[in-house]
Amino acid sequence: MKYPPVHYHGYLGLDPLLSSQHRKSEEYGKPAHDEMLFIITHQAYELWFKQVLFELDSVLEIFKKSKVAETDMGLMSARLERSVAILKMIIGHVDILETMTPLDFLDFRDMLYPASGFQSFQWRLLETKLGLRMDDRLSYNQAPFYKSLNESQQAEMQNVLSQPSLYDAVEKWLERTPFLQGENFNFWDSYKQAVATMFQEDMETVKNNTRLSEEDKKKNLEGLQAALKSFDALFDETAFEQLRKEGQFRLSYKGMHAALLIQIYRDQPALQTPFRIIRALLDIDETMTTWRYRHALMAMRMLGQKIGTGGSTGHKYLADATAKHKIFGDFFNLTTFFIPRSKVPPLPQSMADRMNFHY
Amino acid sequence: MKYPPVHYHGYLGLDPLLSSQHRKSEEYGKPAHDEMLFIITHQAYELWFKQVLFELDSVLEIFKKSKVAETDMGLMSARLERSVAILKMIIGHVDILETMTPLDFLDFRDMLYPASGFQSFQWRLLETKLGLRMDDRLSYNQAPFYKSLNESQQAEMQNVLSQPSLYDAVEKWLERTPFLQGENFNFWDSYKQAVATMFQEDMETVKNNTRLSEEDKKKNLEGLQAALKSFDALFDETAFEQLRKEGQFRLSYKGMHAALLIQIYRDQPALQTPFRIIRALLDIDETMTTWRYRHALMAMRMLGQKIGTGGSTGHKYLADATAKHKIFGDFFNLTTFFIPRSKVPPLPQSMADRMNFHY
Amino acid sequence: MKYPPVHYHGYLGLDPLLSSQHRKSEEYGKPAHDEMLFIITHQAYELWFKQVLFELDSVLEIFKKSKVAETDMGLMSARLERSVAILKMIIGHVDILETMTPLDFLDFRDMLYPASGFQSFQWRLLETKLGLRMDDRLSYNQAPFYKSLNESQQAEMQNVLSQPSLYDAVEKWLERTPFLQGENFNFWDSYKQAVATMFQEDMETVKNNTRLSEEDKKKNLEGLQAALKSFDALFDETAFEQLRKEGQFRLSYKGMHAALLIQIYRDQPALQTPFRIIRALLDIDETMTTWRYRHALMAMRMLGQKIGTGGSTGHKYLADATAKHKIFGDFFNLTTFFIPRSKVPPLPQSMADRMNFHY
Amino acid sequence: MKYPPVHYHGYLGLDPLLSSQHRKSEEYGKPAHDEMLFIITHQAYELWFKQVLFELDSVLEIFKKSKVAETDMGLMSARLERSVAILKMIIGHVDILETMTPLDFLDFRDMLYPASGFQSFQWRLLETKLGLRMDDRLSYNQAPFYKSLNESQQAEMQNVLSQPSLYDAVEKWLERTPFLQGENFNFWDSYKQAVATMFQEDMETVKNNTRLSEEDKKKNLEGLQAALKSFDALFDETAFEQLRKEGQFRLSYKGMHAALLIQIYRDQPALQTPFRIIRALLDIDETMTTWRYRHALMAMRMLGQKIGTGGSTGHKYLADATAKHKIFGDFFNLTTFFIPRSKVPPLPQSMADRMNFHY
Predict the structure, then answer these.
(1) Which residue of A169, B334, D120, D224 is surrounded by the most CB atoms within 10 Å?
(2) In chain B, which ranges are continuous DSSP H helix?
(3) A291-308, pLDDT tens digit by residue?
(4) In this complex, which chains have at least 3 CB pairs below 8 Å with chain B?
(5) What is the pTM of this model?
């Protein structure tokens, strides 16, 4: 009525969409039935990658602002969680693709050389926009991965690399957290104190434990000392910066503190949605890792010891990328520094008030 | 080496594929973020529909032959099972689409009028190729559904309707089953006898059951009589044809027998793959039914009591289609006539031999 | 160290757990392999029902308070979302159970009479705690469902029925919403005005649409009038209460307003988590409905036209329950009264401030 | 009627089942809400492990026979495929368990020490029954894993280890394959010939390829020579046995041949179900590997760098086990030796006849 009538078929662009499946095997006169599945599965991946990129772009747009509006937080959390849902869902596409057997793949595998999933520009963009840097990447056939990209893709990738990634924007956002310091409250001091007390108590418990032999006591106490020492990375800025230089941490010192605060005090109204956002980022990382791993397993199953269509030992590459291409690894590492909720210092009322509504 | 080099991007037709997302809301200058999800989810559906059609076409091609080669059976079973796997997987797309809230949908819903999922030509083709006839369909806004198709689609649909569907081909294949009759063996007689004996025994059990009052005995015996009588539909060809005329059955009398034989003796080597095929057809029916139902629920959630974009009361239509658009319903009904394996008459050796290998 | 050592096996109670599978078919000397799957699938259901009940109980505990602490909102939302995740996951158990064929089921089906999934006390508790009232239930074999419960279960059910359900508690919580009315702001007035304006504009658009014939204009205008009139249920308290008495609505007038406010202004910080909670409740309803439906389909497949083990025509019952046992149906209906975000009246600053943080 | 009446609650043993959840945190007076999820998720795992063991036991029973009846093949394939479906489904439990955050886990983690998922006896049984030998296992805290088992479990494990595993039984079954040799047909000779021809043709193609420089030709030819040489492992029994001794292969020489034959000629009626069985075994392996990997990721997320409750560096262990605990790895490796279907030598009619039905 208000708008010109729309038809399903044209609206969805089904003509270009459904005429973009060209089997090489058919072109060469040896039609391989399962090549269709191969094409469509990968096309489905790429459609969903576009969607996830679309979500991430919108989130990045908001996060990049010098001040993130509280009214945008729910939106961002919802879009990140949608991205997680999509990524989880497409892991299941592997099960579909594996209904093609290795023998069926052989019917057209040679015809695709040297095409390879490594060449998915959108997946690379996804990694880069999330925050994967060039140096974090495994080299791909001894050449930077972007050699596999065409010129306009390389230009776009360079552009993306030159701009803040989601990782960068999140780090900046964390560093601006207004709750690390307040009247009668210094998060860091109070947390440090809580950790010290906790270990003190644990050591007392060991010392007074009559069930333990002297040797066991000694061993236990040494273990606690070592654990306590591992907190130095957190409490000693110089030590932290050293480890960061060595690549053990990526997040800034202040960013670490803020991330920890959000985790520990996530029940506070002002931290409920930030907590969800951090969790969604972790989920994205973990899900992409799982996705890579499932593909590594599938590659091994499809190719045995043969070299991948991309000329690399596919599954080896994927298995390594699985481990290395994590972006928000510090959020995982942070867990090491959690203390049980019962040991968490309560917030002073003035700070609790700042984190709450006053309607 | 043997073939010209291929690149991932071009091979998958990513240029047309990834430039086919045109948000109406953007065109009208009121970009609605979630319209992208709406488009891509439906595009993903259509990609997978194409794949399922591709599988069904290949299966239909084989089934239509006057004699199905035994060497093709495994292939057909695998392709039907793949279709089931795909259909099950895309049901999960509803969960993704539902990350869009009804309020977000409102932002662009009016712009799509009167486009509607009812207009998916491929879904219609899928139903038709499986065996849904025009008269089985619920009318759609009081006009035959193909009014929503464009001319070339209508022509293709007419063509498909004029050719044997998978249902038709399966029925013919069933009727040719060579195992219904053999030396010393008539499946129908022996099955009829087994049913009679079973009910006879059940009635004796009731009569001799001292725990039952006379009244309970009478009630139980009447129940058994009624159950036995329901088998008349199966054993009396005239009665069966009458019920068939009334729409209670669709499958031919001989087809029913063969389907029953396959179910009952599915462990016989020659019936193992036929059994899998029948099960896959049941799975396709059940999964498509579930797909329709999930969409009915989603429509209700998205639209409340409002009329669908297609102008119909969407969820009502879908809920009805859910029940009516079943194709292999007779395979479901057949269950009524199963008897426990312990009561199934053993095959005479000559028939068992015919169903087995002799290497 | 601090606590006595624990072993996996004992901790999880694996002795009782793994010795609770007693096949009737084995007891009667006719072991049916698939009865094990039947038992274990249902046991897995019951384990997860216990978990969902545990989550709901904890949420109900919080919701029942005369004032829900803002620091508890994130927790509640997480626990409801976990319940949704569990319910979605166990729908997939149907796929597992369906690897048992109807013929395999026949091997032990008679031995279970009259046991039936209808007798799952925990599922009934779940429905009741969510808010399903006795009168909402379909009668079960013409007798109230609790006839199938044992005495202590009946007592517990009575007790649960006599206490506020999650539905009741949510309704009370909604009614207390502090944002319906404020300085320079009355949600209801402003919403009513926005609706009137929207329809006014739509009618103008129709009248000025030169593409439309006079007849089409008339039809369109009548349609708009009818749509506008449907809002009366919302705007006229007397009309609403009348419809409520007739069973068209369950939620109180004020509860409806609050639910609408939360949906419409969900981006406001104070409404972000309430919105998630309402969405999770909708998800629970929709998922339980889907669960029932999948079981109805499975029952039909397993039993054909035969009566269920519980003596009812199983799938008919389930299909009906599917539609009727919805609890938060008003949240679905509410969608009817949504207006596009662009038409939503902006909040006056004073109200926006009340819904925001001030750190 | 025939059998005493049965009630859902008692039949499923719900009293012991639903009273086996004892939270340590409750026992110690510090109830941690999420410990319930932790318990129930692991109990659900164990229930399903019992089911998978039940299926494997029944399959092993059949496979162990000196001659596997053809009428049992469909059954075995169905039960293995059911096991795959179950294992795939429970991987999804990780998503449920991850709704518990690391901080929530800390509330009761210390109370469980040193309980650990490594102590799951059923999972160990599962691995062992499939064919994992003691020496294939990663050592667990420098002590054989069965130190974590109680006495009766150790006895049962020893017993299982002393009997043929599914791996052993499948190997024997493969070695008995009647189709490796026949009138005018020796699978091995014909396959070797086909491989030689294929490589010969490939080399000719390279030599005649005018697009290639001399250097590229040389490189390509060397690559082909190397690939051809890798087939020596298959064609030269002495070389194969040497590699087998070094642990590169586990399957016997004849077993390898049979497995290859089944893969290559899987369309032959007599090989359709054997092929499904081999595929299901591969699926079990791959799914268990994925299960381990998802748990490794989860452990890393839950524990950060902390040591696992079992005292090992949990995720490291799991990541390694992921790679090493594969049982049917040779079926994966076999893929290396596949040749495209177009190069596969056709069967002589006499052999094709032996693999077909003659009804």
Answers:
(1) B334
(2) 8-11, 14-18, 24-27, 35-63, 73-91, 93-97, 102-109, 121-130, 151-161, 166-175, 187-207, 214-230, 232-235, 237-245, 253-264, 269-303, 314-324, 329-334, 349-354
(3) 988 988 888 888 875 544
(4) A, C, D
(5) 0.95
